[in-house]
Amino acid sequence: MNEDRHVDYYEAIVQIRPKDNDVLKFIKKEVSRRKDVTIAKVIEEKYGYDVYISSQYFARSSLARKLKNRFNGEVTISRKLHHQDRMTRKLLYRATVLFKLKPKEEPSP
Fold first, then answer.
1. Does residue 3 sit within a domain?
2. pTM score of the predicted model
3. Residues paired with residue 80 on neighbouring β-strands, in sequence order
4. Which of 20, 62, 67, 91 is deepest in the core (most CB within 10 A)?
5. Tens digits of per-residue pLDDT, 59-87?
6. Which domain holds residue 24?
7. Gap between the Cα atoms of 95 and 13, Å rounded
Protein backbone atom coordinates (compact mmCIF):
# COMPACT_ATOMS: atom_id res chain seq x y z
CA MET A 1 0.00 0.00 0.00
CA ASN A 2 1.07 3.57 -0.57
CA GLU A 3 2.83 4.73 2.63
CA ASP A 4 1.77 8.38 2.35
CA ARG A 5 -1.95 7.61 2.61
CA HIS A 6 -3.85 8.28 5.79
CA VAL A 7 -5.01 5.35 7.93
CA ASP A 8 -8.68 6.19 7.23
CA TYR A 9 -8.15 6.50 3.45
CA TYR A 10 -10.79 4.73 1.38
CA GLU A 11 -11.97 4.67 -2.22
CA ALA A 12 -14.96 2.37 -1.89
CA ILE A 13 -17.66 1.31 0.55
CA VAL A 14 -18.94 -2.25 0.46
CA GLN A 15 -22.40 -2.38 2.01
CA ILE A 16 -23.70 -5.73 3.28
CA ARG A 17 -27.48 -5.86 3.61
CA PRO A 18 -28.86 -7.43 5.81
CA LYS A 19 -26.25 -8.16 8.49
CA ASP A 20 -24.36 -11.37 7.84
CA ASN A 21 -21.20 -12.27 9.72
CA ASP A 22 -20.18 -14.91 7.15
CA VAL A 23 -20.10 -12.30 4.38
CA LEU A 24 -18.14 -9.89 6.61
CA LYS A 25 -15.57 -12.59 7.44
CA PHE A 26 -15.29 -13.46 3.74
CA ILE A 27 -14.55 -9.81 2.84
CA LYS A 28 -11.93 -9.52 5.59
CA LYS A 29 -10.28 -12.74 4.39
CA GLU A 30 -10.19 -11.59 0.76
CA VAL A 31 -8.70 -8.21 1.72
CA SER A 32 -6.07 -9.84 3.95
CA ARG A 33 -4.81 -11.83 0.94
CA ARG A 34 -3.89 -8.59 -0.85
CA LYS A 35 -0.91 -6.50 0.23
CA ASP A 36 -2.10 -3.40 -1.66
CA VAL A 37 -5.61 -3.27 -0.16
CA THR A 38 -6.67 -2.42 3.39
CA ILE A 39 -9.87 -1.97 5.35
CA ALA A 40 -10.03 1.55 6.79
CA LYS A 41 -13.02 0.82 9.04
CA VAL A 42 -16.12 -1.31 9.49
CA ILE A 43 -19.30 0.37 10.66
CA GLU A 44 -22.24 -1.63 11.93
CA GLU A 45 -25.41 0.02 10.68
CA LYS A 46 -29.00 -0.73 11.67
CA TYR A 47 -29.57 -2.93 8.63
CA GLY A 48 -26.09 -4.22 7.86
CA TYR A 49 -22.37 -3.45 7.66
CA ASP A 50 -20.42 -0.77 5.79
CA VAL A 51 -16.84 -1.81 5.01
CA TYR A 52 -14.51 1.00 3.87
CA ILE A 53 -11.85 -0.33 1.47
CA SER A 54 -8.75 1.40 0.10
CA SER A 55 -9.06 0.12 -3.47
CA GLN A 56 -12.03 0.99 -5.66
CA TYR A 57 -10.84 -1.35 -8.42
CA PHE A 58 -10.64 -4.33 -6.06
CA ALA A 59 -14.07 -3.63 -4.55
CA ARG A 60 -15.83 -3.13 -7.89
CA SER A 61 -14.30 -5.95 -9.88
CA SER A 62 -12.80 -8.78 -7.86
CA LEU A 63 -14.69 -8.57 -4.59
CA ALA A 64 -18.11 -7.90 -6.13
CA ARG A 65 -17.74 -10.89 -8.45
CA LYS A 66 -16.58 -13.19 -5.64
CA LEU A 67 -19.44 -12.15 -3.35
CA LYS A 68 -21.99 -12.83 -6.06
CA ASN A 69 -20.50 -16.25 -6.85
CA ARG A 70 -20.05 -17.35 -3.24
CA PHE A 71 -23.28 -16.12 -1.64
CA ASN A 72 -26.85 -15.92 -2.89
CA GLY A 73 -27.28 -12.20 -3.51
CA GLU A 74 -27.31 -9.22 -5.85
CA VAL A 75 -24.58 -6.64 -6.44
CA THR A 76 -25.30 -3.00 -7.27
CA ILE A 77 -22.42 -0.64 -7.99
CA SER A 78 -22.72 3.14 -7.91
CA ARG A 79 -20.28 6.02 -7.68
CA LYS A 80 -20.23 9.52 -6.30
CA LEU A 81 -18.01 12.43 -7.27
CA HIS A 82 -15.47 12.95 -4.49
CA HIS A 83 -13.28 15.75 -5.84
CA GLN A 84 -11.29 16.99 -8.80
CA ASP A 85 -7.51 16.62 -8.90
CA ARG A 86 -5.85 20.04 -8.82
CA MET A 87 -2.99 19.14 -11.12
CA THR A 88 -4.68 17.01 -13.77
CA ARG A 89 -8.26 18.33 -13.41
CA LYS A 90 -9.35 14.68 -13.45
CA LEU A 91 -12.66 13.90 -11.70
CA LEU A 92 -12.18 11.40 -8.87
CA TYR A 93 -15.01 9.23 -7.62
CA ARG A 94 -15.74 6.98 -4.65
CA ALA A 95 -17.62 3.77 -5.33
CA THR A 96 -20.35 2.06 -3.35
CA VAL A 97 -20.81 -1.67 -3.80
CA LEU A 98 -24.13 -2.81 -2.35
CA PHE A 99 -24.36 -6.55 -1.72
CA LYS A 100 -27.94 -7.56 -0.96
CA LEU A 101 -28.40 -11.09 0.30
CA LYS A 102 -31.48 -12.88 -0.94
CA PRO A 103 -33.65 -14.26 1.86
CA LYS A 104 -33.00 -17.87 2.70
CA GLU A 105 -35.82 -20.10 1.56
CA GLU A 106 -37.59 -22.03 4.28
CA PRO A 107 -38.03 -25.76 3.57
CA SER A 108 -41.58 -26.73 2.67
CA PRO A 109 -43.38 -28.95 5.21
1. no
2. 0.84
3. 94
4. 67
5. 999 999 999 999 989 999 998 888 888 89
6. 12-101
7. 6
